[in-house]
Design goal:
- The complex is a heterodimer of chains A (248) and B (311).
- Chain A is mainly α and 248 residues long.
- Chain A contains ten helices and no strands.
- Chain A has a single domain, classed as MetI-like (MetI-like fold, Orthogonal Bundle), CATH 1.10.3720.
- The longest helix of chain A is centred in the last third of the chain and has 33 residues.
- Chain B folds into two domains: 237 residues, Rossmann fold, CATH 3.40.50; 68 residues, CBS domain Like (Alpha-Beta Complex), CATH 3.90.1280.
- In chain B, a hairpin with a 2-residue loop joins strand 1 and strand 2.
- A six-stranded mixed beta sheet of chain B has the order 6-7-8-3-9-10, with helices on both faces. A four-stranded antiparallel beta sheet of chain B has the order 2-1-4-5. Chain B has a three-stranded mixed beta sheet with strand order 11-12-13.
- The chains are: A mainly alpha (248), B alpha/beta (311).
- At the A-B interface, helix 7 and helix 8 of A face helix 2, helix 4 and helix 7 of B.
């Protein structure tokens, strides 16, 4: 029996319990809280913080995917090849710029709240998706692409019916990396008043309440594990069909 | 009828194909044979405009290929490449139905055509329709590749080293199948290969290319018996020429009355097969049969006479 069969439901159940019934864990976290301080974070509902956290990550990743994949399609066409180094530099900058610095710079323009966090996550998420999309679109089996031209598919049909579906597993890997990074990074959004699970961690840090820190960190970590696992399975399912493809 | 009219392709100032003209009758197989870099693949790819000719033109049944948009032209021309190029994410049925789908055939017509082709290639439709290419053997993948190219009943079938990725036994079978299917459907085929053996075996006409030029174009027997240049003679393989010639002559042409000992050969075997049988079993003649009935014999003497006559 594979460990995933037991571990997967266990992770999901633990996550649901932590988010929906946090008071169950009071005895576990109690030794970590300072004397007389509350053990379980109750200033706002963990469920609504989780949903808002996931929503931010989903929105930022969706935007990053749209931009990265579009850009990768353009620079892997013959006409766009010249722009490949430039677009690589731009997306690399997005990755090297620390998200904290992005928050600091965007708050004056966008104000406090979700806006700066979205921008930071979007910029941070571009690189893995872009690089993987380029890799996926430029390492397609040459015989298949040649055959697609030879059969009379036009450029758009080749892209939509052949190139994107074949590159999809690799693109999804990029999206998975980006989502996992964003799930962790989103926590710092709470320093500029975005509603994320970071709120719990930051409250814990400000009041020296390790129970809060651990509670917030655990939920974020479990979300990352669950999402990573779900996307990995999706990729495997997609790749299984086209694996061991045409012999070159 | 396919007319290639002074077609030329220049890369960086050097001609890869230099003013090649050739005509192929409908319902025949023309095999273009040459070494690598001879321009044979470029010539083939200019017919369906995967390469644009620098000058010259190709006419299919009188109509210039330049008068249609390239992707629309290609839907009328079947194309088979080495390593089959099947879509790995589509089932066998979707692969075969690719061009009919581009041509907006109704669904049930596509399904009927797919089943018809699978049956023609001796692949049980029930069993193979929904498989993915990765689940097929090399020979089956290759057959699906040819079936896909034939799906819309194209005017012309182009094949670029179609059997190059197959092992020798499967290759010989694939060649026989192709010959049979071509006879049954009356397809016009242009096939590129570097293998003279394959050219002689499959071609009604053989075109030999060297350094971008067409050096000889004729029947396999002409190419073997009267090579136009030392290069062609070399391609045919000097020492083996008599054997190649014998492989082109069926027993039915030299059968004579009389008896011979041992197992009989069918009349559509070649003299080369008969020679081989004689040498192997130490006989001086082999009996010949037609549909199981003896019709005479072929003697070593007659085989030798035939080889000398043609040389």
């Amino acid at each position: 029996m594979r460990p995933g069969i037991v571990l997967r439901p266990a992770v999901i159940l633990l996550l649901l319990a932590l988010v929906l019934q946090p008071e169950w864990f009071e005895p576990v976290f109690a030794p970590l809280a300072p004397e007389g301080a509350p053990v379980i974070y109750a200033r706002s509902s963990l469920l609504s913080l989780s949903l808002s956290h996931l929503g931010l990550v989903a929105a930022a990743t969706a935007a990053a995917t749209l931009v990265s994949v579009t850009l990768a399609i353009l620079v892997t066409r013959e006409a766009g090849a010249a722009f490949r180094p430039l677009s690589r530099t731009v997306t690399n900058m997005g990755q090297t710029f620390p998200p904290v610095a992005v928050l600091a710079l965007t708050v004056p323009a966008l104000g406090f709240g979700a806006g700066p966090t979205l921008v930071a996550l979007f910029l941070y998420g571009l690189l893995p998706i872009f690089e993987n999309s380029i890799a996926g679109l430029s390492t397609l089996p040459p015989a298949t692409i040649e055959a697609a031209r030879g059969l009379g598919l036009n450029r758009r049909q080749r892209l939509i019916q052949v190139e994107l579906p074949l590159a999809l597993p690799v693109i999804l890997t990029g999206i998975r990396l980006s989502v996992v990074i964003s799930l962790g990074t989103a926590t710092i959004g709470s320093t500029v008043a975005a509603r994320t699970l970071g709120e719990v961690i930051i409250a814990g840090l400000l009041t020296s309440n390790t129970a809060y820190v651990l509670q917030g960190g655990l939920i974020v970590g479990l979300f990352a594990v669950a999402v990573y696992d779900a996307l990995t399975q999706l990729e495997a399912r997609l790749a299984r069909r086209s694996r061991a493809t045409s012999t070159p | 009828m396919i007319e290639i009219d002074r077609i030329t392709k220049v890369y960086n100032g050097a001609p890869a194909v230099d003013a090649v003209s050739m005509t192929a009758e409908s319902g025949t197989i023309t095999v273009i044979v040459g070494t690598s870099g001879s321009g044979k693949t470029t010539l083939l790819r200019m017919i369906n405009r995967l390469e644009e000719p620098t000058s010259g033109e190709v006419r299919i049944n009188g109509e210039s290929t330049l008068s249609t948009k390239p992707h629309l032209l290609r839907r009328r021309i079947g194309y088979v490449i080495q390593g089959h190029g099947l879509f790995p994410h589509h089932t066998v049925a979707r692969n075969i139905g690719a061009v009919p789908r581009l041509l907006n055939w109704p669904k049930d017509k596509i399904r009927a055509r797919v089943d018809e082709l699978l049956t023609l290639f001796s692949m049980e439709p029930e069993q193979f329709r929904d498989r993915f290419p990765a689940e097929l053997s090399g020979g089956q993948q290759q057959r699906v590749g040819v079936a896909r190219a034939l799906a819309s009943r194209p005017d012309l079938l182009l094949m670029d080293e179609p059997f190059g990725a197959l092992d020798p036994i499967i290759r010989a079978r694939a060649q026989d199948d192709l010959r049979q299917i071509q006879r049954a459907l009356g397809s016009t085929i242009m096939l590129v290969t570097h293998d003279m053996e394959e050219a002689i075996r499959l071609g009604d006409r053989v075109a030999v290319m060297d350094e971008g030029s067409l050096v000889q174009h004729g029947s396999p027997a002409e190419i073997v018996a009267r090579p136009a240049s030392p290069f062609v003679a070399d391609m045919v393989g000097g020492m083996e020429r008599p054997l190649r010639l014998l492989s082109l002559v069926p027993l039915s042409e030299v059968v004579e009355d009389g008896d011979a000992p041992g197992d009989a050969l069918p009349e559509d075997c070649s003299l080369r097969d008969a020679l081989s049988a004689c040498l192997w079993t130490g006989r001086t003649a082999v009996p010949v049969e037609r549909e199981g009935a003896l019709i005479g014999r072929v003697t070593l003497e007659a085989i030798r006479a035939r080889a000398e006559l043609s040389a």
